[in-house]
Amino acid sequence: MTSRMTKAVIPAAGLGTRFLPATKATPKEMLPVVDKPAIEYVVEEAVSAGLRDVLMITGRSKRALEDHFDRNYELETKLAEKGDTATLARVQASNDLATMHYVRQGEPKGLGHAILCAAEHVGDEPFAVLLGDDLIDPRDPLLTRMIEAQARYGGSVIALMEVAPEQIHLYGCAAIEPTDSEDVVRVTDLVEKPPREEAPSNLAIIGRYVIEPAVFDVLRRTPPGRGGEIQITDALRSLALGDGGGPVHAVVFRGRRYDTGDRQDYLRTIVRLACEREDLGPEFRSWLADFVAKEMAQ
């Protein structure tokens, strides 16, 4: 792991329209996955990869994100007085998880623009970007592997995952060539949400990036792309095609990924993780088996 890399950027300024009305006043990143907000899993992943300096790109009505990673003295005092040390420990876990920083995006100009908002904080070192909709199982340390790949190959590293060809239009897509590492490929081109017949592969970009700071200069001159927004895919394509800043490689991820940005996948994620919990799993699995059996019998 490169010692230069210490910072993670988490864009969290989106409106969460797919989860309305739940996200009318609550950030989508604060929706619970079992008993922790989704954003806490993402910060934990960054910290596990050695990145304890975390910048969150927020927007209007996102104050709950800052509050969650801050102390709640009144609540902690009440729990301590009750002697509920187990709950107190869970509440305090997010307080010192990382050194948290926040900056507002201001205008919703796209993911590329959100990342550009991190330029002053990041400075001239490589940094990681973690999207809050994607949860990566801690048993499959994708980000750590990406940091290792960046240290070896230089430039920027993205994460790719195979998807069904009929789903590729939902993602950024990569054209690739092999390297001497089985799980690392060199990216030769990128296309944002291509029609199936125009996609160069079925390798989709998922929400993890390790990026050279040269991307900021590229983003500053990148015009709005698909959807009228500044796309990070377009900026990384420029780097991949030789626009300075080194090559672009990708780790092809074959581990466990949970998409909490889709309502169906969000529900599946909660069920999967609840079933695996030692404190919840046995009773919940028993209830779930009975429930499914009754549903199937109808």
Automatic annotation (TrEMBL):
* Top EC class of this enzyme: transferase
Q: Which UniProt keywords apply?
A: Nucleotidyltransferase, Transferase
CDD domains reported for this sequence = UGPase_prokaryotic
- UniProt-listed InterPro entries: GalU_uridylyltTrfase_bac/arc, NTP_transferase_dom, Nucleotide-diphossugar_trans
Signal peptide range equals none
Q: What is its EC number?
A: 2.7.7.9
- Gene Ontology molecular-function annotations: nucleotidyltransferase activity
Give every Nucleotidyl transferase domain span. Answer: 7-269
Catalytic activity reported: alpha-D-glucose 1-phosphate + UTP + H(+) = UDP-alpha-D-glucose + diphosphate
Q: Which family does it belong to?
A: Belongs to the UDPGP type 2 family.
Q: What is this protein called?
A: UTP--glucose-1-phosphate uridylyltransferase
The gene designation is galU
